[in-house]
Predict the 3D structure of the following.
Amino acid sequence: MPANVIDAWMQITTPRMAAEPWMATLLRWTGQSADALLPDVAATLAVMDEAGVETALISAWTGPAGALISNDETAENADRSGGRLRPVMSVDLNDPMGAVREIRKRAKEGFVGVRALPWLWGLPPNDRRFYPVYAACIDEGLPFCTQIGHTGPLRTSEYGRLIPYLEDVLLDFPELVVVGGHVGFPWIDEVASLMHKFPNFYVDTSAYVLHRLAPDLVRLMKGEGEKRILFGTNWPMLSPARCLKGLPELGLSSDAESLFLTGNAKRVFKL
């Protein structure tokens, strides 16, 4: 296994998130029981050690019904990790100024990004409720992390389309750094288009084992996207070891592999 890897998308799931009905699809896809969705910090660090992952970004989750993983819970888990877990916040889009104040506060507390999932909110990323969040991310120098491509849970994938939804955001906020999680399949051509057009657009491979990446994405990793694609797992849905098993078959150069596994995330999240 490679060493000093950075995982761009993990979470330490709470019982209230694990109880969400839409989680059942993810369990079916990954062949896991519900108990597997409730790792603690020690279990998370253990799977990181197994795969040579030095640092991981753990995400809070907030949706219309409230916090499924709160920012406080995420910060506490990060504090217990000896610096190996770095927190990514989530905010309430229905409270625009509250979201802005939360971003300002948490940025001072060591949070390294902001995550909001359009499918969870039932809103495209160019909806007006996202816009104060984007402005606050720019002011605080934080990447905005989201999901692109189809949705694993039984929710619409429409808001994972990159054009026009995410393209509108990148046009309106050229200073915003955006990390699109979960690869962007089946719209890999749109991923390539936005990568070519916008220098602040990045993608992570969370929710995919590497041997199942689309060939067109692998070609991007070897060329124009070498400095734009980050490794991620979506733990606890997938473990780092399971995701990395197919790394040699990608055929990346040593420089491209180092950027993918470590360098790009270090630069984007200022780690």
Notes: The chain has one domain: 5-268. The chain has a mean pLDDT of 95.
